[in-house]
Amino acid sequence: MKKTRLITLFTVIVSVTVLSVGMAMALSLNQETEKEKRTVENYKRDEMPNGIIKNKPENELTKVLFIRYAPDVKMVCDNDNVCEKKENPKSCPNDCKQGGDKDQITNSCYDFLSKSKSKWNWTEDYYYETGLEYSNNSVTKWNNAAQTMIFGDGNNEDNLDWGVYDNKNSISLGNYPEEGVLGVTAVWYQGKNIYEYDILFDTDYFPFGSHDLDTVILHEFGHAAGMGDLYDTTCISEVMYGYLGEGEVKTDLTDNDITGIKKLYK
């Protein structure tokens, strides 16, 4: 009789132990599943905010160049559907499509990268070469004006590649192969989304020269945010005006610059 009780007790102990181990394994598996689920959710948030795939291949995107010239450089148009070579939307409409939306007043002193009002729908960091630390002040001004985080943190890194779609927003100094260029911004976009930008400041003028680097940095980051150039002389006082003369300084956004960026990021 004792033997039977002992066997029964042993069976109960083994059963409870197996059940406990099973529950522990199930709990562990559930925890791993939840962990994997959270990882996937984080990936979705990081990689596809608002359902957008961030790292699209370059062949699916449009690349446009915004070039800021010294005021003595004349415009030429080659009608190749590429915005470059002293071209702008006003004088070269075949190459540089006019931005803005249908409700915008024609002579408003702000314009956009594209008619679809492409902008940043997530926040990314950027990388600047030594000597371009003022970039941090410029992005703060655009972020504050838009009342949202368009740009992330700035990181110092030298030997950056300009004009290369490499998932790195780079701010660098270099010799652009055209005369009269103060700064040039390459922007990759599709529809309502910007995917990358690179900004280059020409070493013919910077970091030491007769033109104000801080002004050009603020202007070029406007393009990186999705703003277009202005060429109507009534808009000559705006940061986003396409020319900059010697000794001109525009290191604060105007009311029109602020109105434009707010309209873009509303």
What do these coordinates show?
There is one protein chain. With 266 residues, the chain is an alpha/beta fold. It has two domains: 2-47; 62-264, Collagenase (Catalytic Domain) (3-Layer(aba) Sandwich), CATH 3.40.390. Helix content is 30%, strand content 17%. The chain is built from four helices and six strands. The chain has helices at residues 2-47, 135-146, 213-225, 255-264, and strands at residues 62-69, 124-128, 151-156, 169-174, 181-190, 193-202. The chain has a six-stranded mixed beta sheet, with helices on one face. α2 (135-146) packs across α3. The model is unreliable at 1-29, 31-46 and 99-107 (pLDDT under 50).
Taking all Cα atoms into account, the compactness measure Rg is 27 Å
Write out the strand line-up for the largest beta sheet, numbering strands in chain order.
1-5-6-4-2-3
Low-confidence stretches: 1-29, 31-46, 99-107
Helix proportion: 25-40%
User: What is the 3D form?
Assistant: globular
pLDDT averaged over residues = 80
**Beta strand count:** 6
Largest sheet: number of strands, sense, barrel closure: 6 strands, mixed
CATH architecture label of the largest domain: 3-Layer(aba) Sandwich
Strand content: 15-25%
- CATH T-level fold name of the largest domain: Collagenase (Catalytic Domain)
